[in-house]
Design a protein that fits this description.
Elements (H helix, E strand, L loop, with lengths): L2 E5 L2 E4 L4 E8 L8 E6 L6 E6 L6 E3 L7 E6 L4 E6 L8 E8 L12 E4 L3 E6 L1
Parallel strand pairs: 2-11
Antiparallel strand pairs: 1-3, 3-8, 4-5, 4-9, 5-6, 7-8, 9-10, 9-11
């Protein structure tokens, strides 16, 4: 039922920008907190940013604070991640996820129950 489809990944040089999108279906999107996670080989899945159902409450992971911006459009059932000032360490597969339940800062991967297929982001030095 739940479907999450990420897009917008690609290759960019350090200092560049990318915008990721996630299209959601199969659930009441406007009632669900959503998040972006990143998977890098050798590291656990990292919470990048999360946004409340209305968009009013946002939390960012420390590694991206000040560089990335999460937003949502409940009329379009989408969330986006604007990534600026990209660094090589931002390289990884970025996943969109649907919140199940948990506590602030809402960036634990096991608090999310549905995941997209991921989109690859590669940042070269």
């Amino acid at each position: 039922q739940v479907q999450l489809v990420e897009s917008g990944g690609g290759s960019v040089q350090a200092g560049g920008s990318l915008r990721l999108s996630c299209a959601a279906s199969g659930f009441t999107f406007s009632k669900s907190r959503m998040a972006w996670f990143r998977q890098t080989p050798g590291w656990e899945r990292e919470g990048i940013a999360t946004i409340s159902n209305s968009g009013a409450t946002i939390t960012y992971g420390d590694s991206v604070l000040g560089r990335f911006t999460i937003s949502r459009d409940n009329a379009k059932n989408t969330i986006t991640l604007q990534m600026n000032s990209l660094k090589p360490e931002d390289t990884g597969v970025y996943y969109c996820a649907k919140f199940r339940g948990g506590i602030y800062p809402y960036l634990r991967s096991d608090d999310y129950e549905d995941w997209g297929q991921g989109t690859q982001v590669t940042v070269s030095p």
